Inverse folding.
């Protein structure tokens, strides 16, 4: 079975500082990995994905994520945080192993607060 | 936003009554999903569909049923609503995860959500 862990419920960072939101995963086969952001009273918006290739993936709004197979991690990063980045962030995984890829499994979410 | 419409957006219902939530897409995506979002649990998959009349259970399917008679519509039914089903429900769509040669990321696109309160 596939699973995702986001070990931090809350991350606080000062505006202008780098931010990291952590994600680790567990799959039987190879993973497709995703990050989503949710603003209050809205649906989830896709930020970026790792499918194959370069371990460093760049996405929307200046976010990037690094795939680390040995550590089974896919941490979300941004060099300089903005107050407008404050939102709920979700990591998600598909297991490419046959039969499991149909399901998209989410972590419990991390609330990011960027302080002015 | 992707062409996904959820209806209703808000609903209050009484315990024991049936409730149906509708998800409508205009993207012609093959896969459709129903998730519920609860504090501390993130998003949990209820049911999903991989084609017309093809559905399967997710992590928290008890008390829920689904139907997909057309590509564009995916219905979630609570046969007899309970207070534990008070939640925010999200519909999502995606291409098939097996269509790798088209370079599709198979990311899912989400609707705006339905806030359901069972009293």
């Amino acid at each position: 079975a596939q699973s995702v862990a986001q070990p931090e419920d809350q991350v606080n960072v000062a505006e202008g500082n780098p931010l990291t939101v952590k994600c680790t995963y567990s799959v039987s086969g190879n993973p497709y990995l995703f990050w989503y952001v949710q603003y209050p009273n809205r649906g989830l918006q896709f930020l970026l994905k790792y499918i194959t290739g370069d371990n460093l993936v760049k996405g929307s709004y200046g976010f990037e994520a690094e795939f680390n197979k040995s550590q089974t991690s896919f941490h979300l990063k941004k060099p300089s945080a903005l107050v407008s980045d404050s939102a709920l962030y979700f990591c998600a995984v598909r297991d490419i192993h046959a039969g499991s890829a149909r399901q998209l499994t989410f972590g419990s979410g991390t609330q990011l607060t960027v302080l002015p | 936003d992707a062409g996904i419409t959820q209806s209703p957006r808000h609903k209050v219902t009484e315990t024991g009554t049936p409730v149906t939530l509708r998800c409508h897409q205009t993207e012609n995506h093959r896969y459709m999903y129903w998730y519920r979002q609860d504090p501390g649990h993130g998003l949990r998959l209820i049911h999903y569909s991989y084609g017309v009349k093809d559905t399967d259970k997710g992590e928290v399917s008890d008390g829920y049923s689904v139907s997909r008679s057309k590509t564009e519509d995916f219905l979630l039914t609570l046969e007899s609503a309970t207070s534990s089903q008070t939640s925010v429900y999200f519909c999502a769509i995606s291409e098939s995860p097996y269509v790798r040669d088209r370079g599709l990321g198979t990311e899912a696109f989400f609707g705006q959500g339905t806030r359901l309160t069972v009293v």
Residues 6 and 23 of chain A are 5 Å apart (CA to CA).
